[in-house]
């Protein structure tokens, strides 16, 4: 990121970017305060990548708001950043926060004749990539992606296709994980102090009981306004012997919409207890342990290790020197709680380790569960 910002500061008259994956946070960080003359971007138009969260349609909107012209190429793998006519950066890093700030990446700065060669390469990509992306087309993509995320589970979700230009042939590299760059995370609690689960209760049965594979439920009178699209919901089951909350999975949130995300008659017939828990944060792309809930990640251990820094509210109270800073007090009778950045990172890392050691539920197992069927026109 340092080299990119320096190059942008030196010459922002003509900026050209080739990057398979693009995230909004990286776009905002790179272009913050910059007065860019012309901006062109070549990326992938693979709608499944947007659905998986590897790239953001909101990043494309942000670029377009800054006057960018955007074109798409199938199986694009090049990462190239050009600034004016004199400087280019060839790198392994995508225009994502992970690529520019977290991962171990390699790049070189080219000037003079090599930079000119990079410019020629980009122009060839640009000419081959077809027409510029229009806002109406992007809106249509977002509608399709939204319906696909809500209407089915991962095992049933159809491929949305790639609308980029076909330029030669190549292999598709492995996609980064959905959860590599979450901005915010929440722990959603399942069960109550009076009905804690035994530690040997299978995660698959917990999903069958509670339906957390497609929705996190909230109580009457507490519509869930805090989680937003793209936030990560960690599912935690209250257990006994000894008492704890065990994190057994995670999924990506869809913001609450009144009516659509309230329990239907069919939902209540399947799970009558939803009359007291009728509001939803729907989720998609869930990953769950193939193990008993007791083999998940202990929230007690996280609170012991991080203290007030475990959760957003307690960390903010600590910084403001006002209010409760005891993480255990903050989760009493809570349906969910927002994680601090360090708490989010801690849970992600520990859950990854648990997945490696114990495995994940497979698509065929998840397909055996109930999934909502929504009317795309609703």
Task: Reconstruct the topology from this structure.
Elements: H1 2-10, E1 14-18, H2 24-31, E2 38-43, H3 47-52, H4 57-65, E3 69-72, E4 80-83, E5 87-91, H5 97-102, E6 107-111, H6 113-128, H7 135-151, E7 185-190, H8 203-210, E8 215-218, E9 232-239, E10 244-254, H9 265-270, E11 279-288, E12 297-298, H10 299-306, H11 312-320, H12 327-330, E13 336-338, H13 341-358, H14 363-367
Parallel strand pairs: 1-2, 2-3, 7-9
Antiparallel strand pairs: 1-4, 4-5, 5-6, 7-13, 8-11, 9-10, 10-11, 10-12
Helix pairs in contact: 2-4, 4-7
Key descriptive features of the protein:
Endonuclease, Chain A, 378 residues, six-stranded mixed β-sheet, single chain, ph1033 like fold, elongated, alpha+beta
Structure described in brief:
By secondary structure, the chain is an alpha+beta fold. It folds into two domains: 2-149, Endonuclease Chain A (Endonuclease, Chain A, 2-Layer Sandwich), CATH 3.30.870.10; 182-367, Roll (ph1033 like fold), CATH 3.10.590.10. Helices cover 34% and strands 19% of the residues.
Task: Explain what this protein looks like in three dimensions.
The chain is α+β, with helices and mostly antiparallel strands and 378 residues long. The protein has two domains: 148 residues, Endonuclease Chain A (Endonuclease, Chain A), CATH 3.30.870; 186 residues, Roll (ph1033 like fold). It is built from 14 helices and 13 strands. The strands form two sheets. Strands 7, 8, 9, 10, 11, 12 and 13 form a seven-stranded mixed sheet that branches. A six-stranded mixed sheet has the order 3-2-1-4-5-6, sandwiched between helices. About 2% of the residues have low confidence.
């Amino acid at each position: 990121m340092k080299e990119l910002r320096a190059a942008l500061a030196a010459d922002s008259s003509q900026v050209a970017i080739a990057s398979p994956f693009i995230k909004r946070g990286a776009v905002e960080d790179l272009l913050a305060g910059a007065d860019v003359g012309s901006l062109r971007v070549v990326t992938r138009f693979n709608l499944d990548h947007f659905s998986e969260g590897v790239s953001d349609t909101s990043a494309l909107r942000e670029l377009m708001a800054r006057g960018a012209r955007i074109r798409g190429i199938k199986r694009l793998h090049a990462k190239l950043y050009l600034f004016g006519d004199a400087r280019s950066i060839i790198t392994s890093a995508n225009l994502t926060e992970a690529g520019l700030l977290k991962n171990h990446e390699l790049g070189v700065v080219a000037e003079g004749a090599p930079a000119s060669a990079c410019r020629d390469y980009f122009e060839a990509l640009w000419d081959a990539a077809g027409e510029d992306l229009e806002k109406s087309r992007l809106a249509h993509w977002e509608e399709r992606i939204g319906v696909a995320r809500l209407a089915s589970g991962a095992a049933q979700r159809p491929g949305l296709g790639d609308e980029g230009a076909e330029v030669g042939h190549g292999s598709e590299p492995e996609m980064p994980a959905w959860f590599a760059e979450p901005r915010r995370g929440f722990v959603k609690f399942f069960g109550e102090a009076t009905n804690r689960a035994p530690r040997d209760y299978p995660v698959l049965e917990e999903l069958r009981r509670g339906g957390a594979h497609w929705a996190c439920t909230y109580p009457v009178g507490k519509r869930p306004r805090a989680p937003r699209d793209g936030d990560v919901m960690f599912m935690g089951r209250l257990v006994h012997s000894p008492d704890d909350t065990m994190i057994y999975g995670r999924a990506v949130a869809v913001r609450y919409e009144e009516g659509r995300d309230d329990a239907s008659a069919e939902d209540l017939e399947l799970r009558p207890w939803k009359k007291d828990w009728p509001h939803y944060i729907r989720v998609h792309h869930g990953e769950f342990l193939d193990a008993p809930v007791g083999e998940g990640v202990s929230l007690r251990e996280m609170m012991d290790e991080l203290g007030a820094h475990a959760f957003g509210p307690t960390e903010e109270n600590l910084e403001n020197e006002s209010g409760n800073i005891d993480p255990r007090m903050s989760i009493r009778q809570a349906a969910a709680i927002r994680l601090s950045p360090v708490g989010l990172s801690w849970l992600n890392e520990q859950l990854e380790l648990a997945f490696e050691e114990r495995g994940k539920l497979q698509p065929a197992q998840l397909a055996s569960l109930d999934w909502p069927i929504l009317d795309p026109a609703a």
